[in-house]
C-alpha cells in the first residue's frame, strides 16, 4: 500500500454529480445524499488500515453532522478484483456491522472517484449547501492507529463552520491513507 496525502482544498470547486448503487439496494445521487446545510462525500474502503482506525469515530461524527443538516455519503472505488475485501457484498457487511447511518456506495467504474479527484482512503470532501468545496482535510489526528479519545474533531469542527456560514476553515490538515486501488488501464 502506498501512503498518500490529500491536496490542499480548492475552495469553491463544484461537487460532481453521480448515480451509484448503495449497499442498501438502491441507487443514490448527489442530491439524494445532500442535506439542507451541506454534503460530506467520503471515499473509504473496507481493507485500508487508516479507514479501519477511524471507523468508530467516523460513525459517531457523521451522526453529529447529520444532526447539523449535513448529508453524508461514503463511496468505495477500489478495484475488488485485486482487493476482494472491498467488493460490494463485504461493503454491505461492514456497513451493517459498523452501524453506518449514511449511504455506502460502490463506484465500480471509478469515474466518480476520478471526477472528485480522490487520491486515498479516507479522503473527505466537504461542501456547502451550494455544492461548493469548503473542506478537504482529515477526520482527526488518527493514522494507522486511532487518535486519542480527546483528539480534536477537525472534520466536525470544519463542517459545523460550513453548516453555519457556508465557508470552511482557511487552515486544514490533509487527510492521509492508502492510495485508491485503480483498475489497470
From TrEMBL:
Residues 163-185 are annotated as: Disordered. Pfam families: AhpC-TSA (PF00578). InterPro entries: AhpC/TSA (IPR000866), PRX-like1 (IPR047262), Thioredoxin-like_sf (IPR036249), Thioredoxin_domain (IPR013766). Signal peptide: none annotated. GO terms for molecular function: antioxidant activity; oxidoreductase activity. Coiled coil: none annotated. Residues 9-161 form the Thioredoxin domain. PANTHER family: OS07G0260300 PROTEIN (PTHR43640), THIOREDOXIN-DEPENDENT PEROXIREDOXIN (PTHR43640:SF1). This is Peroxiredoxin.
